[in-house]
Write a structure and sequence with these properties.
Blueprint: H1 3-11, H2 16-26, H3 37-48, H4 68-74, H5 78-84
Helix pairs in contact: 2-3, 3-4, 3-5
């Protein structure tokens, strides 16, 4: 799966947490823990709202601190933002 599959699934209107679970577990090697879903949603919502992404994101406990922009890029979350801003 890749970018186009992710875009198609997002555009289908499926529930965002379910899609994020699918994305984190199937589009990443090694799969990313689903503990990241709340952080991903926070970053996506912030990006859609046009808010500052150079702030510390609410990463899951036990992980190093990251700024929201880095979470957006490293976890490939930009498709969610692009679909919402169409």
């Amino acid at each position: 799966m890749g970018y186009l599959s992710t875009m198609a699934m997002i555009e289908s209107g499926a529930d965002r947490p379910i899609l994020l679970r699918w994305h984190l577990q199937t589009n990443h090697y090694q799969p990313v823990s689903t503990d990241w879903i709340p952080c991903c949603e926070w970053v996506i919502d912030r990006a859609i709202a046009g808010e500052d992404l150079d702030v510390i994101a609410p990463v899951p406990e036990g992980y190093k601190l990251l700024v929201a922009r880095r979470v957006l890029e490293e976890l490939h979350l930009r498709p969610w933002v692009q679909v919402e801003l169409k």
